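Hi R.,

Here's the chain you asked about this morning:
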Amino acid sequence: MEQKAIHSFVKDYFRIYGADILFEDNRKLQIQLTEELDQELMNRPFYWQYIKKLNQQPQPLQLTLYTDGMKGPKEQGEPLHFGSPRLHQLFQSAKSKGKTAWLYEQPELGKTHQPVPLYPWLVVNIKVSYLSHQQKDVLLSFGLQLIHGQIVEDMMEHLRSKTLHPVISERTFPMKSLIQLKSGLLRIKKHVEGHIAKEPSEWADLAYQRMAEELHVLEVYYENSSQSEEEYEQEKAAIEARYKPNIGVQIINCGLFYLKDTAL
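And here is the predicted structure, written out as tokens:
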């Protein structure tokens, strides 16, 4: 699931910000960057200074990414996984752009001469971090239909096969939302909390067990040493901070998608 979520996020990140997907299979994306994305992501400021100074036509780079986190010895490109610098860079870029994507599904040519209604969906990509002495990150995607309130998980998977465009087609018309965006985000927040509550808690149980073992060792050592109580409390606090389970939730990006589907 993590691999699919990463793949969907990366594909839609580049699609939303204007890049062309030159090749795609279930583990690989080859992307033709725009000038803006090249300057933001590829760390070659001297090239862009040179091009602008000479007033030449720039040649943005292509980027090949392996979303399963693995790359063969003869394969060219970058593996993506939670913790990889490139994926972190894309997360930060999506956040820093600070805008909600507005995309419209395009109707199929020749299917009908009648205007096609498009239904509003709020799509939110979220990173959930399970934190203790180890860290596990999970990328989740939710869609909320803003008329009747259906919430769909793995929403980015549903969007993968759709043709989306930032400009609405003349052969479609948008339906009006009945649920406000602020209320929609609160609904998704509540759904995420329920989703997390259903997840296995063995990782937290193990963290508490490790913490208890470390505190016991510290206590035994303290009883047989000249260590001050202040030093003991500092060591105890450090152990508790390192092992105490915590869950962090971070919105990576969100978008308003107008789709032909009234429900999924």
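One quick note: The two ends are 19 Å apart (CA to CA).

Cheers,
M.
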